[in-house]
Amino acid sequence: MAHIITTAMQKGGVGKTTSTANIGAYLAERGAKVLLIDLDPQGNLTRGLGINREDLQYSSYEVLLNPAVDPSYAIQHIGEAGLDIIPSTLALQGAERELLNEVGRETFLREALTHIQDKYHYILIDTQPFFGTITQNGLACATAVIVPVQVEVYPFEDLPQLDAQLELMKKINPVLKVAGYICTMYEAITNLSHEIEEQMRKKYGDLVFQTVIPKNKRLAEAPAWRQPINKFDPHSKGGKAYKSLTDELEAKYGWKN
Ligand code: ATP
Ligand code: MG
Q1: What residues does 146 pair with on adjacent strands?
Q2: Are 37 and 123 in contact (CB under 8 A)?
Q3: Can you list the domains of the chain with their CATH numbers?
Q4: Largest Cα–Cα distance of the chain, in whole Å?
Q5: What is the mean pLDDT of residues 79-93?
Q6: Which of 49, 98, 139, 183 pairs as cysteine with 169 (C-beta 3.0–4.6 A)?
Q7: Could you give the CA distance from residue 73 to residue 67 in angstroms, rounded to a whole number?
Q8: Does ligand 1 have an atom closer than 6 angstroms to the CB of 219?
């Protein structure tokens, strides 16, 4: 059975998509079978890995809303990265409203994934910065959540709200737990980065990954070249950091069994 890991953070631009793409890529590099699922209509994960959204017949929208569609139809292979992805299209924008009156609307993705999850060691889900029904679908099927926290004041201050929402999700998904909080866009020369890191470790202890992700322009450039960082620039500070973060994640979950 796959480990299903989703990102969650209601704040935008904190590194959810960057973390999903690069952790997925490093897991795949080691031989794990990895499926990424883009649950954000913006499609940054999809576009950043080189999938052309115009040509898609099936996407996460159909997987979520049409139980008659076999979810494997929506899977695309990112050859060079050795990754699979269920991409998103703009159609997903309408899904929030369409799901509104559906009974059991939070667990549609969970149902769909039962058909494909045995093929993968890891399924990594990228969510949008909004805690609506689509994001809840990610959380309802996940075994664990990764929370990227940009080491600035507001993302840190918003964490209690996220923690409360995760607690609520346990009613639908009792096995849900936090895999870890990631300090992202870390700037070693600023006091604020150190201070927020310290406060996070004080608050969450071992649940904060030891590895911090530095602010590194190569991480921001990689999507423009449609590549994860392990292909684009593995020797960059960002590349090394995501590799080491993936080591930590693997030590927690493992996949060679
Ligand atoms: P959204 O909530 O809009 O989906 P997000 O949480 O997924 O945002 P990302 O898209 O991963 O955040 O990152 C926001 C922007 O910052 C992107 O342009 C990305 O390339 C850049 N970025 C992410 N992580 C880093 C980093 N460690 N150093 C420098 N730039 C980064
Ligand atoms: Mg994103």
Answers
A1: 7, 180
A2: yes
A3: 3-250 (3.40.50.300)
A4: 53
A5: 94
A6: 139
A7: 12
A8: yes
10 Cβ inside 6 Å of ligand 1: no
What are the DSSP calls for the chain, one per residue?
--EEEEE--SSSSSSHHHHHHHHHHHHHHTT--EEEEE--TT-HHHHHTT--GGG-S--HHHHHH-TTS-GGGG-EEEGGGTEEEE---GGGGGHHHHHTT-TTGGGHHHHHHTTTGGG-SEEEEE--SS-SHHHHHHHHH-SEEEEEEESSHHHHHTHHHHHHHHHHHTTT-TT-EEEEEEEESB-TT-HHHHHHHHHHHHHHGGGB-SS--B--HHHHHGGGGT--HHHH-TTSHHHHHHHHHHHHHHHHH----
Of the ligands numbered here, which is closest to the C-alpha atom of 11?
Answer: 1
Give per-residue pLDDT as tens, 134-174: 999 999 999 999 999 999 999 999 999 999 999 999 999 99
pLDDT over 70 at 182, yes or no: yes
Q: Which two tokens stand for residue 32?
A: 């794990």
User: Residue range 114-132: average pLDDT?
Assistant: 95
What is the atom index within ligand 1 of the atom nearest the CA of 186?
A: 27
